[in-house]
Write a structure and sequence with these properties.
It is a single chain. The protein has 13 helices and 11 strands. It is an alpha/beta fold. Helix 5 links the parallel strand 5 and strand 6. Helix 1 packs across helix 7, helix 3 packs across helix 4 and helix 8 crosses helix 13. The chain is globular, with a radius of gyration of 19 Å. GO terms for molecular function: aldehyde dehydrogenase (NAD+) activity. It comes from Myxococcus xanthus (strain DK1622). This is NAD-dependent epimerase/dehydratase family protein.
Length: about 325
């Protein structure tokens, strides 16, 4: 098997994929800006090759992609700098093609679908994003799909909904986990009683490695749904129950989010994605299951238990929850 490189490796999804590769006894390359950060996160694993890059420098991107067979693209940007997404994707794609990379796996989101036109969304749903963030995410996908169609490189795209799990701070549920573990009040972004789904992050890695190894995966995108349709309210109740405390939380409505957005760049940007709370995208992943067979999906109750067990005593986070970008 050729070299697998995780571009933007230090996030929680990158860790899940690295763990899956480690479990399969496969070497892999981790690519990021900071050698110190990569060393801290992956330095103890002899299977990990640490490579730094400067995504503003084409020569640096090419060097990071040199000798790679499969490039897994996980590169994130601050929520208020989404305009960088297509720019960084174009540079990385051009560098990968120049270096003879065979395949790119892009970990994507529900944003390009826009408002759902059906109760459950499969891959035939139109990609008609009505938000700026959705259009920028679609632009990333279009670059990749055009390169695949041209025969320049093989591409597959995996869409994830919101996620949660041990160490996952950028989740709508994170503040509830931290507050519940301390018996305190959580602050949530509402409404919280609408249908929703979450992926347990440790389940993502095995799915990604199975997808990237399957010859039938390329030339299209795939949905990965959560462990069933639930709601934030139901999960928060279970989080507190498993933590041994009565549920205590307050809910921020769209007006309060806009008000906080006057002082917070992240909350300001979150406003345009609020439709995902009122018109959620619930994904049908039957096509992915038909391709790969059984997909590991940890039941919410088990995922909650494992996430609480991984929490060390710490103050409630002062930042704001991020949606899956």
């Amino acid at each position: 098997m050729g070299t697998v490189a995780l571009f933007g490796a230090t996030g929680v999804v990158g860790h899940s994929i690295a763990q899956a590769l480690w479990g399969q006894g496969r070497g892999y390359r981790v690519v990021g800006r900071s050698r110190e950060g990569l060393q801290r996160e992956f330095g103890a694993d002899p299977q990990a090759e640490i490579v730094t890059w400067n995504p503003d420098d084409m020569a640096s991107i090419q060097a990071a992609a040199r000798g790679v067979q499969t490039l897994i693209y996980l590169v994130g940007v601050p929520y208020w700098q989404f305009h960088l997404h297509p720019v960084l994707m174009k540079r990385t794609l051009d560098a990968a093609i120049a270096e003879g990379v065979e395949r790119i796996v892009f970990i994507a989101s529900v944003y390009p679908y826009g408002r759902p036109r059906t109760d459950v969304v499969n891959e035939s749903h139109p990609r008609v994003p009505h938000t700026n963030k959705g259009r920028l995410r679609k632009a990333q996908e279009d670059l990749l799909l055009a390169a695949d169609k041209a025969g320049s490189i093989q591409v597959t795209i995996l869409r994830l909904p919101d996620f949660y799990g041990p160490g996952v701070e950028n989740s709508f549920l994170h503040r509830a986990f931290v507050a519940a573990s301390q018996g305190k009040r959580a602050q949530l972004i509402g409404p919280i009683d609408t249908p929703h789904e979450f992926v347990y992050v440790p389940d993502v890695g095995p799915t990604v490695t199975a997808l990237m190894d399957h010859p039938g995966a390329y030339g299209r995108f795939w949905n990965l749904g959560g462990a069933g349709v639930t709601s934030q309210a139901a999960l928060v109740e279970d989080i507190y129950a498993q933590a041994g405390h009565p549920a205590k939380y307050s809910v921020l409505g769209p007006g309060m989010v806009r008000l906080i957005g006057l002082f917070s760049p992240f909350m300001r940007e979150l406003g345009e994605m609020h439709y995902l709370h009122t018109s959620p995208v619930i994904m049908d992943d039957s096509a992915l299951r038909a391709l790969l067979g059984d997909i590991r999906k940890t039941p919410y109750r088990d995922g909650i238990r494992q996430t609480l067990a991984a929490l060390s005593p710490a103050p409630v986070a002062t930042g704001h929850p991020h949606p899956a970008p």
